[in-house]
């Protein structure tokens, strides 16, 4: 049964798989959490988190809930009625579906070396020492932009608070990465992962704000030269989201 389920999902396109993941959670909102549904959810959850372009726009509810039992505990806190739960899932999946629709049936991971052409740790370290401070400065400018609030000297807009928190964390994490490159050509993966995690948080927080999102995408492309995985894919996802918003 499990093997047949895996084969059935493999035959779906990228967009169809994303829709199927959404449908599993919508059904779970109504109480359908049987073994087959749970297995389907865990397979699709692993799949979506393995594709850089989709991982960045994966709803937090999928990231945090490893199975349908955990999701049920989460979704009950959203509402005690079915329809508000279902609508919450649809709203959270909007950007994932938008991105999945633009991808081919199979979406291979994009490596940093393919984006930058850099192969050796020595080349990577040299590029990082030059370019990461530039990325840091760009983030400082972006933070300044968001902290201006409404342009009248007031506090930042409420919808920018989460983005500001993520960007400040990203700025500090980049500082740690710069220090690490001063000591070694190959910093620990955990140091790079911290940068990636803050980058993902910033991307999700700014997904509805095209101008800062675009600026952030440009400065984060610099990080690819430091061998950070998924950044080039994130830049592509950012561009696709902005393009679709501009067409409205």
List keywords for this structure.
mainly alpha; 248 residues; 13 helices; single chain
Characterization of the model:
- It is globular and about 55 Å long.
- It is mostly helical.
- Helix content is 73%, strand content 0%.
- The chain folds into two domains: 2-102, no CATH class; 112-246.
- It contains 13 helices and no strands.
Helical region count?
13
Number of domains: 2
Q: Give the ordered list of helices and strands.
A: HHHHHHHHHHHHH
Number of strands: 0
Class inferred from helices and paired strands: mainly alpha
As an assembly, this protein is single chain
Outline the low-pLDDT stretches: 107-119, 242-248
Radius of gyration: 19 Å
Determine the strand fraction and express it as a percent band.
Answer: under 5%
Tell me the layout of helices and strands.
Blueprint lengths: L1 H9 L3 H16 L5 H16 L1 H4 L4 H5 L3 H11 L3 H21 L9 H5 L4 H27 L13 H23 L5 H17 L4 H12 L9 H16 L2
Helix pairs in contact: 1-3, 2-3, 2-7, 7-13, 9-10, 9-12, 10-11, 12-13
Summarize the structure.
With 248 residues, the chain is an all-alpha fold. It has helices spanning 2-10, 14-29, 35-50, 52-55, 60-64, 68-78, 82-102, 112-116, 121-147, 161-183, 189-205, 210-221, 231-246.
